[in-house]
Specification:
Length: about 210
């Protein structure tokens, strides 16, 4: 039953197609739905480059551990998908045992993300975004850490695509996910929490 529930929630489909519906895919489609933000300042460009470099470093590690774990067939059995995900997650944790919050979302990068989210919420789509976040399925308080599995019981709420417009686009292996007021960076193939920003979503947006 637990296995079927997780698959129904969509946590493992990404391993079969190397992309997962929901937050990550919504960000890519958002670019087609509305224009990107105005030109970045030189400081913002440097911050984004730093973020992308840290993401690339993580992906190099992830891809180095992936061979032999992710099923190669387009539609493997559910059991093989779960087994591959668990093996990849274990390898990633073993390869980065000292990983901690802030390794990717450094204080400067986290501040940039908070500013971009606040800017989006203050823009023309802000009202609809806040309404969507308020109507999302509530999440009980929990203590999540870097390298943890993204928990089964946390709803994969539909994140408004417009909320992602001002954030750096992620490669298909990674996704942004919102849990309460926090923004998480999740490895969709391994279901591992890569990093997160506490208080990324202003409290007034979900109350």
């Amino acid at each position: 039953m637990k296995l079927h529930r997780r698959i129904g929630a969509g946590l493992f489909i990404s391993m079969m197609v190397m992309v997962m519906p929901g937050i990550g895919l919504s960000q890519q489609s958002a670019g087609a739905a509305a224009p990107r933000a105005a030109a970045r300042t030189a400081k913002d460009v440097a911050i984004i480059k730093d973020f992308e470099g840290r993401v690339d470093d993580y992906l190099k590690l992830q891809k180095g551990e992936a061979p032999g774990t992710v099923p190669s067939r387009p539609t493997p059995s559910a059991e093989r998908v779960v087994d591959g995900q668990q093996k990849l997650g274990a390898k990633i944790r073993s390869a980065r045992p000292e990983a901690k919050q802030g390794d990717i979302f450094t204080p400067e990068i986290a501040s940039f993300f908070r500013r971009q989210i606040a800017k989006t919420l203050a823009g023309p789509h802000g009202g609809k975004i806040r309404a969507s976040l308020r109507h999302a399925e509530p999440v009980k308080p929990m203590s999540l850490k870097v390298n943890d599995d993204y928990p089964d019981g946390v709803p994969l709420q539909s994140t408004p695509a417009t909320l992602l417009l001002n954030l750096p686009t992620l490669p298909k292996e990674l996704q942004y996910r919102i849990v309460g007021h926090d923004l998480f960076l999740v490895d969709a193939n391994a279901n591992v929490i890569v990093d997160f920003i506490q208080g990324a979503i202003p409290a007034t947006s979900t109350t």
